[in-house]
Structures
1.
Amino acid sequence: MNNPPANPNPLSQRIGIIGGGQLGKMMILEARKLSFRVVVLDPTPGCPCHGICDEHIVAAFDDREAIAALAEKCDVITYEFEDIDAGALLELERRGKRVYPTASSLLIIQDKFLQKQALKEGGIPVPEFACCGSAADVRVLGEKWGWPLILKARRGGYDGKGNAVAGSAGEAGEAAASLGRGDFFAEKWINFDMEVSVLACRGLDGSVAVYPVGMNEHRESILRRSTVPAPISEKAARSASEIAGKVMRVFGGVGMFGVEMFVCGDEVLVNEVAPRPHNSGHYTIESCVTSQFANHIRAVAGLPLGSPEMTVGAAVMENILGSGETEGPGSAGGQNRINGTAVPAPLYGAEAALAVPGVSLHVYGKERSARNRKMGHLTAVGRTVGEARGRAAEAMRSIRI
Amino acid sequence: MNNPPANPNPLSQRIGIIGGGQLGKMMILEARKLSFRVVVLDPTPGCPCHGICDEHIVAAFDDREAIAALAEKCDVITYEFEDIDAGALLELERRGKRVYPTASSLLIIQDKFLQKQALKEGGIPVPEFACCGSAADVRVLGEKWGWPLILKARRGGYDGKGNAVAGSAGEAGEAAASLGRGDFFAEKWINFDMEVSVLACRGLDGSVAVYPVGMNEHRESILRRSTVPAPISEKAARSASEIAGKVMRVFGGVGMFGVEMFVCGDEVLVNEVAPRPHNSGHYTIESCVTSQFANHIRAVAGLPLGSPEMTVGAAVMENILGSGETEGPGSAGGQNRINGTAVPAPLYGAEAALAVPGVSLHVYGKERSARNRKMGHLTAVGRTVGEARGRAAEAMRSIRI
């Protein structure tokens, strides 16, 4: 890790972001409050970050020349997704560029097997897991731990992609084959009560801010709803918070991390860690003293972290997912375009949704909608979880995309 | 007023903003959350809105062709300051363009004498005032109301500019002359306990959202600090809120208005109305369910208003003003420029300020600093006014600009 040089005006730093999607967009909206200049690298001309950054380098994520050009223009580099070329980031660090979260922490986290090993070695409770080379290995583990088993590709999975369930010895071959040719590992099946996540941020000075525990509900392996605070025992909540703080020290991460966990009664096990602001932390924009995006920007710029405390009684975040394909760019929206900015895929019902008390709407501005694509989200705040939940549900009933 | 056509997707509207300063910037950061496309008109190439809007028309505010070009590109037009060519806006409305606040309300508000008359006729309590043609008129009023008197230019004043105090009959001539050649009027001097303001927003449907009462402290006629809630009697607070709601109905305004008032015991008098988000409402970004900028965008886009309720116990906003001239654009920052974006004038001490709990910092990104120029602000939240005030003061001690 390269420590930043003493800078009397840290706000003069230029921030480079690899990835121009909704996470990058929400980072930029915070960075702009402090007048940071921002350059984005993303292959999509009309990506959500286009039009709010100072420069948009339109290039593939694995284009090393483009990454070098980004670094040339910026003082610090961050990213909004973990499946990027960590080798390119290592190279930047070698040349003295600051990259947060660091390339070395990314290298471990983006390999889910190494990630789990690091967590285990760091004393973090995780489900039992083991390396697999073949379907035969899966069958051996199934006999040992019992069926079903969950198989996970070591790299590249997200939103349930890269995971497979082997329900019995007979299914082991098919499940392993469904993951493609990459390496994978097996994990013991956990009969959890619920999935939760804890967002945590680590500053350059080693200080850690831990957000409240949220409950996550998935459908088709995609996050649909986060409810904060999570309805779990005080003991489990304390465990989850402590574990998230510990995870930040294991990886020596700088910036926001999302720590996904399983809760079984009072017991908490870590499922997965994401080295970036996390979908389950979007509620923090309206509900906490400092949002996950504000703290991420503070962290990567070497500024002190803000309080992660909630200012409202409860918050419920609902993802707004595409229902089907829309026409691509250049069709109906073509004449409606301003300076290359995307014409967002239409979202209907905003009016009715915003009429519900305590509801804020976020539309990412993607040109193309597709089934289960994350197009936006809404957050409802309330005095109680019940109130926030009712408001979120009422608002969601109006939204069509 | 032109009512908007029924639009199943109001988020597809393009918003035009006249003025690219900090108020425009904070409007855009909210508009972007909903993926509105935004075009700005401002004569300064590196103004705070540059780099976050889809297009920046670099033109003078009185350039009617540029205003027409802005309207051509947009579905709805709003503005961040009131001293603009209302005739040009009337012309846009005549051609069927939506302008909020409406040109007719702006025409009355931007003439402080007509504004006061409209308030009085609407049953709003205001200090005694009367039209003046000359210093002789001032002397007559002084004999009637007692000295001192306050003289106000009918048009163009802000931050104390356009105001003069005549302490006695002998000073009437000099005070009147200091206002230049424009028309002016006189107002009875009010020995107020404090100045307060109430932000209010009116939606297209006529609904009104009224924010809590804030106390404002000025120095050299420039707002320095707003404290919310204001330490006034319950009766005065109720009066102030009711008056603000009434003011919104008097002008039929659409969008955010700032209503400045004097408090004398339980009595409340309106001093001035600004037809836009107001400096004293910046605290709403961190402290209310819906910020003044979010509600302004909702209002001009014809969306339902959000709750103005506070989510924190108290908030204190401090303006960060320039202490002296900095080098202009193109000097030291020239090589540091990205795609024409301004290199903001340096601000020192952000690190120490952000280390104070509950503090958020906003830097407007202006290239050139000047004495008393508004360069940024900070908001401290806390459980009590005392806590927020202490935090704000501590943070301000570190800031140097």
2.
Amino acid sequence: MDRQKQIAAAQEKVLPELVLKNAKIVNVFTGEILSGDVAITDGYIVGVGRYRGQTERDVDGRYIVPGFVDAHLHIESSMVMPDVYAMEALRHGTTTIITDPHEIVNVSGAEALRDILHAAACSPLNYYVMLPSCVPATPFEHAGAVMTAADLLHFKENSHVLGLGEMMNAVGVINGDPVVLDKLAAFDDKIIDGHAPGLTGHALQAYVGSGILTDHESVTFEEVLEKLRCGMAVLVREGSASRNLEAIVKGLVDRKLYSSRLAFCTDDKHLADIRREGTVSSNIRQAIALGMPPIEAIRMATINAAQIYRLPHIGAVACGYRADIVVLDDLDTVKIHEVYKDGAAMSAMKMPEPMHYSEKLMNSVHIAPLSEETFVIPPQKEYDVIGLVPHQILTEKIHMTQEELNAGLQDGTVCKIAVIERHHATGCHACAYLKGYGLRKGAVGTTVAHDSHNIIVVGTNDADMRAAVEELVHIKGGYTIVSDGAVVDSLPLPLGGLMSALPAEEFIPRLDAIIRKAYAVGVKENIDPFITLSFTALPVLPAIRITDQGLFDAENFRFLT
Amino acid sequence: MDRQKQIAAAQEKVLPELVLKNAKIVNVFTGEILSGDVAITDGYIVGVGRYRGQTERDVDGRYIVPGFVDAHLHIESSMVMPDVYAMEALRHGTTTIITDPHEIVNVSGAEALRDILHAAACSPLNYYVMLPSCVPATPFEHAGAVMTAADLLHFKENSHVLGLGEMMNAVGVINGDPVVLDKLAAFDDKIIDGHAPGLTGHALQAYVGSGILTDHESVTFEEVLEKLRCGMAVLVREGSASRNLEAIVKGLVDRKLYSSRLAFCTDDKHLADIRREGTVSSNIRQAIALGMPPIEAIRMATINAAQIYRLPHIGAVACGYRADIVVLDDLDTVKIHEVYKDGAAMSAMKMPEPMHYSEKLMNSVHIAPLSEETFVIPPQKEYDVIGLVPHQILTEKIHMTQEELNAGLQDGTVCKIAVIERHHATGCHACAYLKGYGLRKGAVGTTVAHDSHNIIVVGTNDADMRAAVEELVHIKGGYTIVSDGAVVDSLPLPLGGLMSALPAEEFIPRLDAIIRKAYAVGVKENIDPFITLSFTALPVLPAIRITDQGLFDAENFRFLT
């Protein structure tokens, strides 16, 4: 901010560059709606009141609200690159994002962080980064990198870094694991995000008392209330998979509890969902539809998030704030008329030049040579089988005899699943049986595999599984479907094996197409062919998983093979 | 905070050191009152809920609220040293103070700041410092020091420093004075306190847009509302002289506007007033008496202030927060039962050892030799006379002919007033006439003289004025009354000529005594003998003042002599 320009324009000593005239301005500080103009110079709001400007634009009595803040998200879940994500988010009124590049850093470590921080600096958004606290996410798998407290400290002073990303290792915290506490101590003077699903009572007190500020994993109002009482800031999540908003907002509305410690986030949201319903704009709309006063919903989406994350010039339409502004047709449907970022109209904004990412990120799939043994499962008396649950990412542990297994393989209810380490070509791999995926022929593979992002491949036969893995190596990561030795379809995700280089308009139909083709080779309709698959390797989710180190009992935290 | 201890005690793996049992706990986050215990270890709250402890203290259903935060004050106004002030504030539930050592730094510059920051580090309070932005306060007087942006930057990283103190030079800000903007730029990433009495419209937009966050000078609700709308944090002041709370709180209550951007402060409060009515505790009580919901008043006095000043472990009774706790008998009269600072009961706390201040601060009165000329006012056709206004610190400009003057001198309505530079023995001095003080004999002098704290002496004759000045030099600063060449009474204020070294119990009667004696030598009852005097040299207050550089027209900003 140039103070001289700011001060001169505020007093019309030099006319403000742009004035949005005749607005109903939502004041997030007082909760009022005030008629007036918004004067902008040099990307900042210089005054709110009555103003003349070098350029004047009449908003015809529409509402002006601050640009929205998405308080917690992983861009990787959109499956497009940060610049594509940014333009998409901007269209929907989101001007500030607080991201945790947990996935890509699990692939490429410090190099990924450097690239992401460069992307943040180049972004049209206010793009903030929480440094991933859990790389690797667990000791039960091989990720692409290990990030210690010392490794993270190298990035702490970057102006885009707000603190430490979601501390998923709640067990480590409440047991006082020194490695975990080291990371917390290193970010004592910054924000530390939490991840505390269902944590309650004394354990929650310990978790919060260790210095963790936020949580975005609450699913009930009661959970939110207990966390708020502890002093946590609660981010109400509504993403593609985790839709927690309704239960929480209903409780807030019933209790008329509108705390400044509540904000909105999307966490994981796919691009097609964003295109259809927006990012935080969708949270706002749903909250209002559930009876939350519109100004409270807008506060949650703006100033509350900015204050929780200590962002001083963000989240309000007031002098000295960034001219990040959303013009709305009304406050009920929150229909967006125009978005201004740093005073520039989104409708006139061009797609930024694609960023250049480093070789390590764009070439992240490295496997040891496959062998005849890779997909072989030795005969056993009884088999532990991963059972998928329709519409859920939870799994169930199933026991099968050889006969049951054979029957399942025959009727297509059971197929093979393999996880192959793909970062450092260690050759680590594991293979097991999967029930409920429904593949009738061929193989389906992905390099998106939470949280270590090794290769997961599912197949009815070893040859197609092998061909699918080879295709994933060939396209440098992505999704693939192989049948009878031929590639049915592939969606390359070259950035870390997680994100596409395509623009949004091309990506969405390509993703739709490969999903349709997965159903065509037999994947059951109540299973998301790629997303469900990508969670089968996450050892922190119940009940049974598979990592590159073996079949894993996620309830007793021990390997089964 | 020791995380291992915190985490262990939160889960009773090691019993908390102290548990306050059976309390009604005010939760400032949710606005609830919850029954439970508060567990404390190592000076921090480790848990709220049901707890057993190594020591348990039953609070018998009393209310537990966070220790109070006084969001803006000048300790100098109490006229006692910081350690005496601290113990007095603690008794009244104030556990955190945000101070601006504006007065003492005007006397002794960087050396005063060093001493004050040392006092802050030794204090039982959470003692924060805003670095004085206006030293000297104006170019129309000689202060003891000049503090540039570069001088202030030396202290910026001290852990007790939160930012830049009240920017009184509003005119400099809105005119874009580069020296002023340099100071604002230097504290861009910290808090900048404002001082914007009556500032409104585009000028206020410019002032706030320059990066100034707070204001404590509002006297009407409308003024508060405009400042809140601009994004300012408003500190509602109730001090010894400026009593702004009633008008503002009435407006807040009428409009039900309870913003998280409102806090309480005392600004300037004398020790006797503190002893009688408390510090922030008095603001809370008055607000509740005016109809503010008790929990809102407590929020203003605790978490709101902590959040405005970005103090992460202060302002709430919750895990991870400092165990700064006030136990109240009830929420209506806010009667204090006990105060805990860092988990230690105030009632068992000992007065800290007096701190050693540097020679420069304890020996701050240095004048050039007085001469026959010092108190001579050359004859003029007409005289500009300073007219005191009963019960106010404003003055009025009075014109007097020689005849009127002589009559006034005769009947005791007019006397002489002189200001003598006392920091660097420059010999700068000025003398004029003062109407309305009411002295019948002798002289009254003080080294407390806002904001440059030169010597002010008022007298009916030159000999007693001279004797008073010499006495002030002799006692190294303070208050004095001289009559017929003899000292009637003196109150030494050796710390910078501003603060007494006496404990509270001795100081209050000594101050009472000298004030009584001032009335006995004729000071009018509607004038505060020393405080009113100490403002006659403040050139920013209308209408007419006197500095060491001459009689000053404070409405047209020019010297009259």
